[in-house]
Design a protein that fits this description.
- There is one protein chain.
- By secondary structure, the protein is an alpha/beta fold.
- The protein has a domain at 3-121: 3-Layer(aba) Sandwich (Rossmann fold), CATH 3.40.50.
- The protein has helices spanning 11-22, 48-58, 73-89, 103-115, 129-138, 164-168, and strands at residues 3-6, 27-35, 40-41, 62-67, 94-96, 119-121, 142-149, 183-189, 199-210, 238-248.
- The strands form two sheets. Strands 1, 2, 3, 4, 5 and 6 form a six-stranded mixed β-sheet that branches.
- The longest helix has 17 residues, at 73-89.
- The protein starts with a strand and ends with a strand.
């Protein structure tokens, strides 16, 4: 086995990578989807230089899937396929993901990797969000919230440190891990890092995007939505997001 990790830069990725290493999984690379237009991590909006600083501190080589602002499903999957072929040539056999309970997303990933002869591993799958957040804090991870979906969280939640107070202040309709895309984070310290990633806050902005659909429904009826995935596909009605810009210090 030789595995790569699907790295978003956020809390689920950090905790899943930590647990995967505890389980002895041979993870030898990080893979991140990057918006080449903005030069930032897709959906999270974190600058590329901070992503690279994370990878350097973790001590793993970084592979990026370079995508335009709003790629269709075909463009996304072709870019993923090309990277998968490169990784297979380098001996990779598995991809590791930080998903928790979104069945559609899990199935999508499994099918996408299976097409390229790769297998999936999900270290956090089926765990309680409350338990996972408690573990995240217990292990000493430090993170800041960089994106919130305005339909679930107002602007005051964006740019806050992700700590117990933040989780306790979440509305009851919001998943504590933000698994439904309510919020995204940037992890800057913890047991997987050799040293903290230093940054300073930039401006906070509000942007609207066509909401991404995970996949095209076969019957053209309701399409499953997933704001937490890096995959932008068929444009849907607009959704608003607050972004806290971070600048490498």
């Amino acid at each position: 086995m030789k595995a790569f990790f699907s790295w978003s830069g956020g809390k689920d990725s950090a905790l899943a990578l930590y647990k995967a290493r505890q389980q002895g999984l041979p993870i030898e690379a990080l893979v991140t989807t990057v918006n080449t237009t903005a030069n930032r991590i897709s959906m999270h909006g974190v600058r590329r230089e901070l992503l690279e600083a994370q990878a350097a501190s973790i001590g793993l080589p970084l592979y990026t899937i370079e995508l335009p602002e709003m790629p269709g499903m075909k463009v996304y999957e072709e870019a993923v396929h090309q990277l998968h072929q490169q990784l297979k040539q380098e001996g990779f056999t598995h991809g590791v993901f930080g998903d928790i309970f979104l069945e559609d997303l899990k199935t999508y990933r499994e099918n996408l990797l299976m097409k390229d002869g790769l297998q999936c591993i999900f270290p956090l799958w089926g765990k309680s969000g409350e338990v996972l957040m408690n573990e995240f804090f217990y292990f000493g991870f430090q993170s800041i919230v960089v994106c919130t979906n305005s339909a679930q969280l107002n602007e005051s939640f964006c740019g806050r440190l992700l700590n117990e107070a933040f989780v306790n202040n979440l509305p009851p309709t919001v998943d504590s891990c933000g698994e439904n895309g309510e919020y995204h984070s940037f992890v800057f310290d913890g047991p997987i890092f050799s040293k903290p990633v230093h940054f300073k806050k930039g401006e906070r902005v509000f942007k609207e995007y066509a909401a991404p659909a995970l996949r095209q429904a076969q019957d053209d009826k309701e399409q499953p939505q997933d704001y937490s995935d890096d995959c932008f596909t068929t444009p849907q009605p607009k959704a608003g997001f607050y972004f806290q810009d971070l600048v490498k210090a």
